[in-house]
Write a structure and sequence with these properties.
Elements lengths: L1 H21 L18 E3 L6 E3 L4 E5 L2 E5 L2 H14 L6
Antiparallel strand pairs: 1-2, 3-4
Amino acid sequence: MIRFLIVALLFYIGYRILISLTSAKHPPAKPAGNRDPGEETHRDPVCGIYVSEEAAVIGRHDGQRHYFCSMNCLEKYREQLDQSSPSEPR
């Protein structure tokens, strides 16, 4: 009975080794810092970080799209616009 268990265990280990050797290898995941050469990036007007279109928070001003790295930068940009715009006369 013990021989049967040992032989079964050896077959199972051999089977797992064969499966691991013959299975398709997956390419390693792309690190977050690297980008594709064809991927277009835009400079955040507030902090200056370059951000891809896919990961960007997009804001509009005067019909133009502006790309931001986060909602915080978008809000800071809007605050800067509010401060720089002339106040309405009373």
